[in-house]
Amino acid sequence: MGSYIPNTRSQQEEMLSAIGVSRVEELFAAVPHEMLVEHLDLPEGLSELEVRRKVTAMAAKNKVYDTVLRGAGAYRHFIPSVVKSITGREELVTAYTPYQAEISQGILQSIFEYQTMICALTGMEVSNASVYDGSTAAAEALAMCRDRKKNKAYVSACADPQTIAVMRTYCFGSGMELEIIPERDGRTDLEAMKGLLDAGTACVYIQQPNFFGNIEDASAIGEAVHATGAKYIMGCNPIALAVMETPAACGADVAVGEAQPLDWTPPSAGPTWAIWPPRRPCSASCPAVSWARPTTWTAMWAMCSPSRPGSSTSAGRRRPATSAPTRPCAPLPPGCISPPWAARGCGRRRSSP
Predict the structure, then answer these.
(1) Shortest CA distance to 170 belongs to which of 205, 130, 216, 196?
(2) What's the rounded Cα separation, in Å, for the pair 292 and 210?
(3) CA 217 from chain center: how many Å?
(4) Which helix (H) or strand (E) holds 290?
(5) What is the greatest pairwise CA distance in the chain?
(6) pLDDT tens sequence across 172-213
(7) pTM of the model
């Protein structure tokens, strides 16, 4: 079996000699002996066929239902077989080496296509390249809308309880106030919300469709939120956005959502990811933002904006040169959605005038 350590034995001995030890084990001399593991009682290795049979037998103990009407948002969705074929093409699966764009164009291309799709679904101008999952995206969005004079966030009681719980955790750590907007007949109580909002309100979060499966009057809620000068955050289902009014059309300043419905089979206890497209005025504070403009190439940005406000590439510190607006090295044909750095044979960037 190969080794993940690229150094040769002689190189390792040379490094050990330089620091005054003879064996690697001496580097752990400070660790109590009883904490060291000298032998792992592992079974002998199995062939691929034997492993498959063993895992299949374990999986057969599970009860699998054709239809599951539970799961608080995580469900199985039909995934056309062509999806695996397309996403497995070599143009989209090269290794992610973000500092060497010339050898990571495949993953950059796939991320860009993903961002473009999210922009199209939500109607927003930009999209980031995801955060952990839908609930953390919603909680991070609250912090994104906070400022010195506005430290209070409101969330609809019709939102996913788990999302609300994550919001409470984030707000507890940051000192931000979080209040619940009551529901009425399975929808956000608009009149009650209007009575709660004030000049200290930073943002309001609603889920569309909400946790009960009902459709909110998102446009009316957005108008009421903006009337107080607060930001409007919408939690979205990307599949539902194909037939529903977009967050942008409803006046949302930030759209977040759980991306599991796109193509992720609900795992036993595994990760998902989030969609997060903000409007351009909010984008400077968006974590892990990377830019995509699906309708025009008058401007675009590389994926190296700050991961958090106040990080090493924000707030008075010089940004990397690649975060400057770029333009194609050659004119793009009408309707083309490929970014300049993914054009075949083009490995250079040119800054806009």
Answers:
(1) 205
(2) 28
(3) 26
(4) strand 289-290
(5) 75
(6) 988 899 999 999 999 999 999 999 999 889 999 999 999 988
(7) 0.66
